[in-house]
Amino acid sequence: MQYQAKNFPALKNDNLLRAARGEAVDRVPVWVMRQAGRYLPEFKEVRAEADFFKVCRTPELAVEVTMQPLRRFDLDASIIFSDILVIPQALGMTVEMRPGQGPVFPEPLESTQDISKLTPDGAVERLQYVGDALTLMRHTLEGKVPLFGFTGAPWTLMGYMIEGGGSKTMSKSRAWLKDHSDESRKLLNLLADVCVDYLIMQIKNGAQILQVFESSAEYITKEEFIEFALPYLKHIRVKIHEKIEKEGLEKVPLVVFAKGAMHSLAEMVELGYDVIGLDWSIDPEEARKIVGPNVTLQGNLDPQDLYKTPEEIAQLTKTMVRKFGKDRYIANLGHGITPQTPIVSMTTFVEAVHSAFDD
Known about the structure:
- With 359 residues, the protein is α/β, with parallel strands linked by helices.
- 46% of the residues lie in helices and 11% in strands.
- The protein has a seven-stranded parallel sheet with strand order 1-4-5-6-7-8-9, sandwiched between helices. The chain has a two-stranded antiparallel ribbon with strand order 2-3.
- The N and C termini lie far apart (49 Å).
């Protein structure tokens, strides 16, 4: 099937894009990280028939699971179903999604010499299936809500590639930063350049807003974050804006989410992203004080709060939203929704966001 990245339906609900740009909204917009996923029974049905990465690589399946939460909840954005680890795959590494274990790299980067085995040339072309899914999703959405594209950030990707999967310490990757800092920077630069081209491809194929996930910031010190994460997050933002201008593309808002790096909010403001995502560890009023009035904040209810009673969820959510206020704010969780979350909790959360200022 051919996917045409043009003649997209007009957008009917642009509250999230308006909030990202600092414009007035008629209600606080809300979406949830991992909103298409394992907490939904219909997602589990799709996964029973298809391998995780097969879903990612098959536009029709990716669009089906991207649509699933939108059929249930009054969300203000969709995010294309994919995974941050499609980039290592495109660079020639094997990644398997194993039940009960998560992502596994059978052959991780064992030494700095292994960097030379990576194949950045043509990597983005090998990810065109994500572009196809974005284009098909834009048409399928019929303008209901805007569509997020995304990428993992260089440090987070590097960690998976060296550890061989998820890690509670990132000890091997941190050893690279300490013992092989020049080679680490070489790898981070390579990944940053691929991220830029990948995100530009997503814009061309229909993404209306982009999020960069620095999901593993919590494993490094503030000093390491400033040296080995921030420069590459900035590189991505600067190069995307340069390419947008050079190629005459529509400028889309950019979101950075660095889980566990609330110690560096002031430094993140300097990166130039339109939106800063907050994890659940920081108070909204404290975050706003640090960030100032000119950057949109996104977050930050603790995903564990969704296991409380609907009454408690509604109260916690409304308190959070009122602390953030209606200006320059996108409601979300402080990390991805967890697999056992009750459906009613998600409904309650979304409704509480939208009604927070009705009382």
